[in-house]
């Protein structure tokens, strides 16, 4: 059976229970370590359903696990999947809404209360006003603390583009929020 066409529901036909147990253990630990990070990444990229996007990313990783070159590629695969699913979700919402109305305020959930601080709401507004690519680069750089090479790999762009986009995004942030510079 070709592993590239295996579905999630079909039984695995690897070389035995030991491989399945090791796979399950490695996947479970990766999920425990990175699920909240992937959910927050989707949230910061503007997704309205970050938990579903993070879950879908893990489902896709699970189905592609055997085709990854190595286990170290899993985190990069997850980040890229979250970015792509968030982008797709935002496109879908734009089509559904047709006439973009003012974005409703976030509900006061436990997560939003934890994430919010004095300037959190203002920062989200300023980030939402940036072009999509600039917002993605800033979130990946300053929230996930990725280096330029990892950002380039996640977004599928050149490192030089990451550098230029970061510079433009920071300049736009300073223009949109000049009072923050005075502190």
Number of helices: 9
Helical content band: 55-70%
Overall average residue pLDDT: 78
Q: Shape, please?
A: globular
Structural class: mainly alpha
**SSE string, helices as H and strands as E:** HHHHHHHHH
* Residues in β-strands, percent: under 5%
Biggest β-sheet description: none
Question: What's the total count of β strands?
Answer: 0
Through-space gap between termini: 61 Å
Compute the number of structural domains: 2
Report the uncertain regions. 1-16
Provide the fold topology.
Elements: H1 17-44, H2 50-64, H3 73-97, H4 110-115, H5 120-128, H6 132-143, H7 148-155, H8 159-176, H9 178-181
Nutshell version of this structure?
The protein has helices at 17-44, 50-64, 73-97, 110-115, 120-128, 132-143, 148-155, 159-176, 178-181. The protein is mainly α and 183 residues long.
Q: What can you tell me about this protein's structure?
A:
With 183 residues, this protein is an all-alpha fold. The chain has two domains: 16-101, no CATH class; 117-183, Arc Repressor Mutant, subunit A (Orthogonal Bundle). 68% of the residues lie in helices and 0% in strands. It has nine helices and no strands. The chain has helices at 17-44, 50-64, 73-97, 110-115, 120-128, 132-143, 148-155, 159-176, 178-181. Helix 3 (73-97) packs across helix 7 and helix 6 (132-143) crosses helix 8. The longest helix has 28 residues, at 17-44. Mean pLDDT is 78; it is low at 1-16.
